[in-house]
Design a protein that fits this description.
This protein is elongated. It has nine helices and seven strands. The chain has about 200 residues and is of the alpha/beta class. The protein folds into two domains: about 50 residues, RecR Domain 1 (Helicase, Ruva Protein, domain 3, Orthogonal Bundle); about 140 residues, Dna Topoisomerase Vi A Subunit, Chain: A, domain 2, CATH 3.40.1360. β3, α5 and β4 form a beta-alpha-beta unit. Helices cover about 45% and strands about 10% of the residues. Bound molecules: zinc ion (ZN). Zinc ion (ZN) binds next to α4. This is Recombination protein RecR.
């Protein structure tokens, strides 16, 4: 038996989300049908609004309602340090630590020859443009400890170091994205404090 069109469509939509297969999507779709109508309306509105109202900061690539983002506009922050991460989610993680007070830059991915992702496909050009500003003295690279993350860190280091800017990497190969669920804030803080020059 085939599902009626509306629920088939809903299942199909849920399956477009990462990590959700047919079984989970079907469960979520049936759950949605039984939800309060107001909750479903709020859910639908939130989906549309999140995409409509959020943009990428034109300076750092973070997600923001206003451009530039709050972090880039905050002159109280240390303007001499830029911490480079793979995704905006990593910024949220580091900010929860309340220990890092510099600036950020989001790459929106890593170099990946297998996926055909080269330097032009991630947010590197705008980072190099930022570094022309003399105020930046150190770039901390916090890409994940995956082969792609390491290769991206090495690539960036080779690009940035000749400009006389210090390039460091988080200590102990601890990365923000992949290991954070297993690392408490103290471990992450130590990884930032104990960062090593590349
Ligand atoms: Zn920003």
């Amino acid at each position: 038996m085939q599902y009626p069109e509306p629920i088939a469509k809903l299942i199909e939509s849920y399956m477009k989300l990462p990590g959700i297969g047919n079984k989970t999507a079907t469960r979520l779709a049936f759950y949605t049908i039984d939800m309060q109508q107001d909750d479903v309306t709020d859910f639908a509105k939130a989906l549309v609004a999140a995409q409509r109202d959020l943009h990428y900061c034109s300076i750092c690539g973070n997600i923001t309602e206003e451009d530039p983002c709050l972090i880039c506009r905050d002159k109280q922050r240390d303007q001499s340090t830029v911490l480079v991460v793979e995704t905006p989610k990593d910024i949220m993680t580091l900010e929860r630590m309340h220990e890092y007070h510099g600036l950020y830059h989001v790459l929106h991915g890593v170099l990946s020859p297998i996926e055909g992702k080269g330097p032009k496909d991630i947010n590197i050009a705008s980072l190099l443009k930022r570094l022309q500003n003399d105020a930046i003295k150190e770039v901390i690279i916090a890409t994940n400890a995956t082969p792609e993350g390491e290769a991206t860190a090495t690539y960036l280091s080779r690009l940035i170091k000749p400009a006389g800017i210090k390039v460091t990497r988080l200590a102990h190969g601890l990365s923000v994205g992949s290991d954070i669920e297993y690392a408490d804030e103290m471990t992450l803080m130590k990884a930032v404090e104990g960062r090593q020059e590349m």
